[in-house]
Write a structure and sequence with these properties.
Blueprint (H helix, E strand, L loop, with lengths): L9 H36 L3 H21 L4 H20 L1
Helix pairs in contact: 1-2, 2-3
Length: about 90
């Protein structure tokens, strides 16, 4: 890419393009996780424990992948997984 006459650096323009792509990916991943957790909570409130357990493995996978890619912090993923497992355990004991 040729240097622009406006004095802007091409590396800054490339970095901006890259950051917008990464931001879009991060937002979509976070939205998918939030929707999955919302569905999980709905299943728990309806006392559908078996379906909730099946969804829980998918949510764990999403959280682990997001943490591996750097979308969310790995401790944040661990905390969310822990809270979800506590939620299903409490629903089973009731």
């Amino acid at each position: 890419m040729a240097k622009l006459k406006t004095g802007r650096h091409t590396s800054a323009i490339k970095a901006w393009r890259k950051s917008t792509r990464l931001q879009a990916r991060n937002v979509s991943v976070k939205v998918r996780i939030r929707r999955a957790v919302k569905d999980f909570n709905a299943l728990i409130s309806r006392k559908d424990i078996e379906s909730a357990r099946k969804n829980l493995t998918g949510i764990y996978s999403m959280l682990d992948k997001a943490a591996a890619k750097g979308v969310i912090h790995y401790k944040s993923a661990a905390r969310k997984k822990s809270r979800l497992s506590r939620r299903i355990k409490a629903a089973v004991q009731k």
